[in-house]
Amino acid sequence: MLIWQHQRYKLSAITVLLNSLLIFKTVYGMSAQVFSPQQLSHLADIDFTVLTNAPWFMLGAFLLLNSIGLLFRARIAWVMSLVLLLTTLVFTVHYYSNLLLNIVFCSFSIILLLFQSRDFNRSSATAAGIVSIISFVILIIYSTYGSLYFGDGFSPKITDLSMAFYFAMVTMTTVGYGDILPVTETARLFTISMIIAGIAVFATSVSTIFGPFIRDGLSKLIQGKKHTMKRADHFIVCGTSAMATNTIIKLHQRGLAVTIITVRPSDEFEIIEQSLEGKFDIISGDSSDTAVLKQAGLEQCRAILALTDNDADNAFIVLSAKDLSANAKTVIIVNDSKNLSKIQRVQPDVLLSPQLFGSEVLARMLNGETMDNNDLAELLLNSAHGIPSKTNL
């Protein structure tokens, strides 16, 4: 069950990919056998007048690109896929209402993406940057050469590459000076496709590619240069949940070195960081990625604490840590006691179950039993039955 929860995002990527293939199949009027090795050699002979269906073809192309981004669990790919699928659904219902399979499968894909929204939470440059750069380049090429291809449908006619590039940029950025107007149905449809792409792809791609550089530059200008902590004999905390943030504060108050790994710091965590004068050592990335764990200094740390809100993610963090360093001390939290038996299989050094701990303490208090600090500590560390606790972290 844990493996399925951690890998189910791939189902969304596959459905988005199949949507793009359905679009290509319909646009080109080919059967599924077009992908055989014999016929692939004749693709150069395809009559590209089928690009009169350019808006729909464009949707298929960008759905194909975003299916790759979904494999990286990129949030930008999820947003763009959702927008493009909604556009595809409206476009298909309006112009190709007889394509029942396309309509039903597109609707299913939209519902699936909405259902798996939380699985796409990565915003790192590696995940989002790849999708954004590819989308940006392909969109520029498509819009420029598409404008030139349909040039006769505009007034005045688009006759050269520089004019086509100018119209593409003006349209995608939604500036629209009005000096070049589409006058035929085909040109109007193509212009609509560029506007949709400009909103769904162009703006998000530019902000993703250049946004971090601008933000980091301003941050360095205002805050000055930050020195990275020497990552040795420290604690690694994964996540910014309530348990994680409170643990970080308590460790920090005791003068202990802490490195935090998080996909995206929450607003609450940013407030805490500001209140402590930005002395946290933060790494943005996937806590279960061995490269990120190496960067965090796992092999020199005192312990790694998997404290995210997702039990499946916590389990994979511990597995990755043990795979990278067999001597790494691991602490894991179980948010839902129903997952306790599954989490036990990863064999962490310390397993905490706040639900079971709280219920046990409450039951003892109601029964009039006395408990000292040692009783509470032992009860907390043994809240998950059957797990030996190695407390010398």
Automatic annotation (TrEMBL):
Topology in membrane: Multi-pass membrane protein
InterPro entries reported in the protein's UniProt record: K_chnl_dom, NAD(P)-bd_dom_sf, RCK_N, Trk_Ktr_HKT_K-transport
Entry's transmembrane regions: 53-71, 76-93, 99-115, 127-151, 163-182, 189-214
Gene3D superfamilies linked: 1.10.287.70, NAD(P)-binding Rossmann-like Domain
Domain named RCK N-terminal: residues: 232-352
Sorted UniProt keywords: Ion channel, Ion transport, Membrane, Transmembrane, Transmembrane helix, Transport
Localization per record: Cell membrane
GO-annotated biological processes: monoatomic ion transmembrane transport
Protein name (record): Voltage-gated potassium channel protein
Organism this protein belongs to: Shewanella schlegeliana
